[in-house]
Amino acid sequence: MSGRRMLEFGGYAAAVVLVAFGVVALVLGVDGHNTVGSNLAQEQIVGSPDMTPQTIAPQVAAAKAAQTKLVASQKAAGVEVTPSPINTPSCSVAGELVDTGSEARCFAEYMRIHTFGATSGLTYSQMGRYQAKPGAPAKATDGLGGTNDPKYAVTDPVTKQPVSNGRRDLWVTYTALTTALNTSYMASQLSLFGIVVGVAFLLAGFGFGILAFSVFRLPALVAGSKEAPAAKPTEVQAT
Q1: Pairing relation of β-strands 146-147 and 130-131?
Q2: CB contact set of 16 (below 8 Å; sequence gap of 6+)
């Protein structure tokens, strides 16, 4: 087989492979996108009425005010606290069934505002592990009734172990739920990326096939049609 023929068949082979990859990527992308939507719908998550930028604004303002007050009191007690930003979401899922990745991410943003409202703007790492005793030194607490020092913690009369901080446990629950929601968003975006890649592979495959035909086969067909001899008229001999 000549080198030219090898290049031609190589072009066709590349076209077939790219088209095959494109079909697979499209199928997987569409399937992944549908799976994310159906799994989210099964959870029957519906946005609460306050999950709009306008209606959540008072809660954001209250959480920021509580956070500012708490940070100031902690600094007065000699404890440095870096406040975590509390931002108003720009999306809205109020009254909507959460069945897409973008809606799941939006719902998670509103959950963060609700959780900050319960923790006065403190994050998981800024709260004490245990419930602090009344009268515990302010420097040994998180300013919100929690402490990391067992000797200042409330003790369970049955287990004789320090009682866990309920607000910190609430943040653990929030983190678990929002991680799942954000994972759904990431999976949704990856499935869309797979669909885009599949379309790109299909276009590239068809392009390779057309290019191989145009370079190696079309010139020969054109040249052959030009070199075809014209039909000669039949000569009639005089008798």
Answers
A1: antiparallel
A2: 205, 209
| This prediction's pTM | 0.81
- CA dist 145 and 139 (Å) reads 11
Question: Which stretches of the chain are DSSP H helices?
Answer: 3-42, 53-76, 101-119, 166-212, 218-227
Give the domain range for residue 13: 3-127+165-222
H-run or E-run covering 146: strand 146-147
DSSP reduced 3-state for 59:
helix
Could you give the percent of the chain with pLDDT greater than 70?
A: 89
Q: Is residue 158 part of a domain?
A: no
Asked whether the beta carbons of 33 and 95 are under 8 A apart, the reply is no
- Neighbour tally for 54: CB within 10 Å: 10
Tally of structural domains, the chain = 1
Q: What pLDDT, on a 0 to 100 scale, did the predictor assign at position 170?
A: 94
Between vectors from CA 16 to CA 18 and to CA 194, what angle results, nearest 5°?
25
CA of residue 112 relative to chain centroid, distance:
17
User: Is 107 within 8 Å of 116 (Cβ atoms)?
Assistant: no
Count CB atoms within 10 A of the CB of residue 9: 13
Q: Which of 162, 82, 88, 153 shows the shortest CA–CA distance to 122?
A: 82
